[in-house]
Amino acid sequence: MKRVLYQFPLSHYCEKARWLLDFKQLDYEVRNLVPATHRVFTLLKAQTTTVPLVKDGQEWIGDSTDLAFYLDAKYTLRPLLPSDPQLRTKVVMIEQQADKAGVHVRRYAYSQLLQTEEVINLLLGDSTLVRLFKKQLAGQVRQGITKLYKITPETGESSRLKMQQAINDFEQVLQQNGGRYLVGDCLSLADIAVASMFAPLLAIKDTPWQTLKPNNQSLQQVYDNLSQRPLGQWITRLYQEQRQARGNWRG
Ligand SMILES: N[C@@H](CCC(=O)N[C@@H](CS)C(=O)NCC(=O)O)C(=O)O
């Protein structure tokens, strides 16, 4: 039976799921869902309201963290989590911190970019239905996202600060571990989670965010700052050396 990833191309949690599946060298199809209407499907299949959602044979996995544990238990080659208990605990902790930071990256980025055409194109895709009703759908999706993620100039700014704090923290962990990986001496769930959560701010080639260009000074500063810092350079290098991004995010 086919393995399928249901996703939003723009979502960095979906990028994490794609990377996890790619790392395990598993074949899968990518299917895009339209925001808001996706809930009917995800609730029905996995009692969840969010994507990524993965179908693997008879199994439905509706959260990127659950997916990592599921994949490691079922496909034991190329482990995502170390077997050493101490390292494993560290990986789990960093992964959770990354997921939390991801909420702030998302809120800040939307506070700056939600009105742009590029974001709407990525959110809505290019189906016939979308082409016919793009304007109405765009308005509704923008409104829905603003409400769901509580996006205002104030929450955006507060998320920017929390994001910067997270960058400092992860950078420290990276440097303490020698600069190559966050935990131990090989790629783990921790690296994949942190890199996926911050990748939207680096406009890396062959990622969904390559077309999102800073449209104001605040965002330009955030991009410049991250790309010049050790964490940003490490993420960019990880993408070049380990990600082999294949453009499969398009679905
Ligand atoms: N903890 C979840 C978070 C996933 C998540 O927040 N997904 C967002 C897209 S970035 C989503 O599906 N939002 C739609 C909604 O909540 O209706 C995971 O790691 O999979």
CATH topology of the largest domain: Glutathione S-transferase Yfyf (Class Pi), Chain A, domain 2
What is the CATH class of the largest domain? Answer: Mainly Alpha
Q: What is the averaged pLDDT score? A: 95
The radius of gyration computed from the alpha-carbon positions, rounded to a whole number of angstroms, is 18 Å
Distinct helical segment count: 10
- Proportion of helical residues: 55-70%
Plain-language structure description:
The chain is an alpha+beta fold and 251 residues long. The protein has two domains: 3-74, Glutaredoxin (3-Layer(aba) Sandwich); 85-244, Glutathione S-transferase Yfyf (Class Pi), Chain A, domain 2 (Up-down Bundle). Helices cover 60% and strands 6% of the residues. It has a four-stranded mixed sheet with strand order 2-1-3-4, with helices on both faces. A hairpin with a 2-residue loop joins strand 3 and strand 4 (59-61). The chain is globular. The two termini are 19 Å apart. Residues 8, 11, 13, 39, 49-52, 63-65, 99, 106, 148 line the site of glutathione.
In short:
This protein has helices at residues 12-23, 38-46, 64-74, 85-113, 117-124, 128-148, 153-176, 189-198, 217-228, 230-243, and strands at residues 3-7, 29-32, 53-56, 59-61. With 251 residues, it is an alpha+beta fold. The protein folds into two domains: 3-74, Glutaredoxin (3-Layer(aba) Sandwich), CATH 3.40.30.10; 85-244, Up-down Bundle (Glutathione S-transferase Yfyf (Class Pi), Chain A, domain 2).
